[in-house]
Amino acid sequence: MNAQTLSDLKDKPLFTLTIEQFLELQQSVPVKDSSTKADDMPPKIIGIEEAVKLTGYKWATLYRKTSTGAIPHFKRNGKILFLREELENWLLANRKETTEEALARLDESFLQKRR
Predict the structure, then answer these.
(1) Is residue 87 within 8 Å of residue 55, measured between CB atoms?
(2) Which of 38, 39, 48, 100 is the most buried (most CB within 10 A)?
(3) Residue ranges per domain, the chain?
(4) Is the pTM above the cut of 0.70?
């Protein structure tokens, strides 16, 4: 089918096309890739099951932490939900310094006191 006929088909209402015309028109339309970047990304809002996998805590531990307000969460219709980014930040917030870092910090504070 030539370009002129194809553009004529695109201007016609769909219900007026024959099956052959419809199939030709369908073949001329580029197919979008179904695997988009949004599909590859993890969801921003996760439930407690996914939070168990992410944190390594048991379900009961997470539930207790939500009831005491120790972990960032929100509820929708009685279901506990988490923002993945907030949960990851919460996990990284209580980093303990290594022995080397503690000694370096103490050495620095000792040297500053002597000045």
Answers:
(1) yes
(2) 48
(3) 47-96
(4) no
